[in-house]
Amino acid sequence: MEAKEAGIFSERYLLKRPLLDSITRERPVVLLIDEIDRADEAFEAYLLELLSDFQLSIPELGTIRARSRPWVVLTSNNTRELSDALRRRCLYHYVEYPSFEKELLIVETRLPEASGALARQLVEFVQSLRQVDLQRKPGIAETLDWAAALLRLQIKALDEAGPEAILDSLSALLKTRQDRAALTTEVVQRMVATC
């Protein structure tokens, strides 16, 4: 019985998740840990061992040392403070919102069925919306979600849709109650008029 139990707690039955998989590869890989600020502190502590010693400790197996060092990319939306220990092991780079041209290219590439006029107008709208004092400014994912919603609503151009139709679709773009309340019919009409 003990021999069977010992066999169960062996590498043969271990499911390699991304952290372990990244350090047991023969050649370095890129390990993306998206939205690290949403992970709990226990995971962050576990990650520290990987980033500082390039090893992982597994109680039933012991310490597994890296065969190769992965290139680790952490992303954060700044929803909670990361520990100083984790920050010390990282290089910091802030990614700005894209320019109008780049965001337009993203929309046109991801949603080619959107007319040129609609794509230009909605990107202009989102770009100007980011200048408003909002709790959570819309990112690229929200721009794409909103564009898809407008297409499903068969809106061909913002200036032809009317403010009520646009207001009805803003839940794809704005993610807090306060931000949604800040966009009244009048504000939407002014913003559309400048697109």
Mean pLDDT: 87
Could you give a short account of the major beta sheet? Answer: 2 strands, parallel
The oligomeric state is single chain
The count of β-strands is 4
Level of helix content? 40-55%
The helix-strand sequence is HHEHEEEHHHHHHHH
What proportion strand? Answer: 5-15%
Q: Segments where pLDDT lies below 50 for 5+ residues? A: none
Globally, the shape reads elongated
Total helical segments: 11
**Gap between N and C termini:** 73 Å
Largest sheet, spatial ordering of strands: 1-4
**What number of domains?**
2
- Structural class assignment: mainly alpha
Structure description:
The longest helix is centred in the middle third of the chain and has 14 residues. This protein has a two-stranded parallel sheet with strand order 1-4. Strands 2-3 form a two-stranded antiparallel sheet. The mean pLDDT is 87. The protein is elongated. The protein is mainly alpha-helical and 195 residues long. It has two domains: 87 residues, no CATH class; 94 residues. Helix 5 packs across helix 6, helix 5 packs across helix 7 and helix 9 packs across helix 11. Strand 2 and strand 3 form a beta hairpin. It contains eleven helices and four strands, in the order ααβαβββαααααααα.
In a few lines, what is going on in this structure?
This protein has 195 residues and is mainly alpha-helical. It has helices at 2-8, 18-24, 41-53, 84-88, 100-110, 116-129, 140-152, 158-161, 163-169, 177-182, 185-193, and strands at 30-33, 55-58, 62-65, 71-74.
Question: What are the salient characteristics of this protein?
Answer:
single chain; 195 residues; mainly alpha; two-stranded parallel ribbon; two-stranded antiparallel sheet; 11 helices; elongated
